[in-house]
Amino acid sequence: MSSIWVDSLGRNFESSLGLLEAAIRDCTDELWETSMWVVPARDADAELTGPDGTLVTDPAARHALVQRHSTPWSIAWHALEVLDYDLAGEFVPWAPPPPFTGKAHWRELTTLPSAWSRSEMLRYVDYCRQRVRDTLSDMTDEKAATPLPPAHRDHGRPFAWELAGLPLHIVEHASQIRQFITAAGVAPGADV
Hints:
mainly alpha, Four Helix Bundle (Hemerythrin (Met), subunit A)
C-alpha cells in the first residue's frame, strides 16, 4: 500500500502532465515551431553546431537556431526530458525512449534536422505517465530519503525533493505554451 504523500504526488504528476498534454494538443501546426520569446544570442565565440554537424558562424543563422529553444515543441520536450531523467535520479541508467534515443538532448537541439512532432511529444507524455507510475509504485520513505548520487545535477538532495518539484516544472512549461497559443487566438480544446 502506498502512502498518502505518494498518492498525492501521483495526482500532481497526472494533473501537470494533463496540462502539458492539452497544451501540446491545442497548439497549431503554425505555432508549433514559432519562438514564444526572444532567446538571448549565444556568445559569438561559443561554438554552435547546426543540423548538418558543421559549425554555424553566420549571425542570422545562429540566431534562428538558438530561437528554437523557445518554441512550443522544444519547451514540451525539455519538460518531458527533465521529468524522464529525474525519475531515474541517476540511480539507474537513463535513456529517453524512441524516437529520442541516441539523438541530441534538449541542450543540443540546434543539431536536430527538424522539430519533434506533436504526436511524438504526445507519445512521450504517455511514456512519462507510465514512468511516473512505475517510479511511485514501489516508493518507500527510505527510497524517497535517499540522496541523489554525485552524477546528478542536484546530488546530495533527497530523491523526494527532486520528485516533489517535477510537477511544478511541468506546469511552468505547460503554462508558457498555453499562454502563447491563447494569445494567438487558440482556445483550449480547439480542434487543430
